[in-house]
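User: Here's a structure from my thesis project, written as structure tokens. My advisor, Dr. K., wants to see whether a designed sequence matches the one we expressed. Can you design one independently, without my sequence as a hint?
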């Protein structure tokens, strides 16, 4: 009986004709019903028509539901090809649009790229990684973050950094470790400002050029420790431990060193680290 009462109460709460419902609640329910109906209408449309609506975006349009619907669909190759053509047309339109519409189009394109297989995404975004407009370059970097880039794009990104100083260009290379040795680890390490991304470069070397990674460990101890922890290769416990003595005064290094030891299962090294800290700075506050 209690369950039936609760169910009936729930129905009344969703019933716009309920005289006990306030104006605010009635408006909310009707708004939710309208959105459900409009989304249901989208589900009745073929992919090509949804793509056409997206490619005709205006400044005031909210295309979130249209893109969400596309993401639900199993797009055929013909649909994907048509999507790329429409995206190119939309990108070209942005060049002649107001700044507000440019921004909206860039946001739409960023979301659409995520729907493309890597090969098509890279094909679409490649012309923009060294675009004269910073906002378009940044869009291209963002669009490719979760995609496997090509060697040609890695070279373009390196050139783009040298021309513009965009850190995002180098970070995108670091996200694709295969190309780190080709672009040059020294170049990347000297120009990446953030330790995290330098660690990603060292991690790439651990996989693709281990002697180079080991030779850089003394120059970049924090980055090497971080990379070893991310990589998790227990055979690197020795080279990691060798960095302790020369960096034992650096609390930030000790923190990342402890992280890496934990990832490698260096129990005895962790015990030695804890003893060292207690002797040097006193017991840990609890």
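Assistant: Designed independently from the structure alone:
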């Amino acid at each position: 009986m209690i369950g039936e009462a609760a169910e009936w109460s729930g129905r009344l709460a969703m019933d716009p004709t309920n005289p006990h419902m306030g104006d605010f609640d009635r408006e909310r329910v009707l708004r939710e019903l309208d959105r459900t109906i409009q989304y249901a209408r989208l589900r009745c449309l073929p992919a090509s028509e949804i793509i056409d609506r997206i490619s005709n975006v205006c400044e005031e349009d909210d295309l979130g539901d249209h893109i969400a619907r596309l993401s639900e669909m199993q797009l055929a190759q013909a649909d994907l090809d048509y999507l790329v053509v429409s995206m190119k047309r939309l990108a070209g339109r942005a060049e002649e649009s107001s700044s507000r519409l440019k921004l909206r189009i860039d946001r739409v394109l960023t979301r659409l790229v995520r729907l493309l297989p890597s090969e098509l995404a890279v094909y679409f975004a490649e012309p923009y990684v060294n675009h004269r407009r910073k906002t378009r370059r940044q869009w291209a970097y963002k669009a490719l973050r979760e995609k496997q880039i090509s060697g040609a794009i890695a070279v373009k990104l390196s050139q783009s950094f040298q021309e513009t100083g965009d850190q995002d260009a180098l970070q995108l290379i670091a996200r694709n470790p295969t190309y780190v040795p080709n672009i040059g680890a020294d170049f990347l390490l000297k120009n990446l400002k953030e330790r995290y991304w330098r660690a990603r470069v060292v991690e790439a070397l651990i996989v693709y050029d281990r002697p180079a990674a080991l030779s850089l460990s003394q120059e970049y101890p924090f980055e090497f420790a971080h990379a070893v922890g991310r990589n998790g290769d227990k055979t690197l416990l020795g080279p990691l431990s060798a960095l302790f003595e020369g960096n034992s005064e650096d609390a930030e290094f000790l923190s990342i060193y402890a992280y890496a030891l934990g990832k490698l299962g260096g129990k005895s090294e962790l015990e030695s680290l804890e003893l060292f800290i207690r002797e040097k700075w006193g017991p840990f506050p609890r």
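When you compare it with your expressed construct, this may help: The mean pLDDT is 88.
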